[in-house]
Request: fold
Amino acid sequence: MRILKCSNEMDETTMKNIAMAVDDLSKGKLVVYPTETVYGITADIFNQKAIKNLYLTKKRPFDMPLTVAVSEKDMVETVAIMTNPVEKLIDAFLPGPLTIITKKNPNVPDIVTSMSQNVGIRIPDNKIAIELIKQFNGPIIATSANLHSHPDSTNIEMATKNFGDFVNTYLDNGQCTLGKPSTIVWMANNAVEIIRQGEITQKQIEDVLNA
Reply:
């Protein structure tokens, strides 16, 4: 287990530490990383062995889908079907504390979505997270760095207490700015359902979609 300090200034040490985490991801290892909401634990979404290990490490039931993080709107279509309502929400709220559930791209492994044909996507509003995804050059898992049903980790100490040596690398960016999970919205046949209420409200979402 190694804890690597990362600065929002994106200095040379931070970039080097992120590169080390990217190397871990490419080798199928697990990484803990910061977002604006809570710390996340991640793996390569196309490495099914790594995804299985992530489920086991979190003690998360395999029938609970995982969210996917991307670094920009152009990357969304590698994991999800872009529709006009989804694009509106991305343009209005992302990067930010919103997870959008929509139809998945068929190339996303079923283990990620628990056999569902939908996938949750988000773009975290955190420089370290965005740089991690950019350097990895592809989408990564975005699920909270806690044991299943335990409190979310809002700092690196909570994450290391949860996972210890089961995670190879922890990227430490201090306390999360928001400290609570993202709003989750499900887009189905142009209907909107709030699955989890976070910083962004249903009214804000509906105002954007109805504009």
About this structure: The chain has a mean pLDDT of 96. The chain has eight helices and eleven strands. The radius of gyration is 16 Å. The first helix runs from residue 12 to 26.
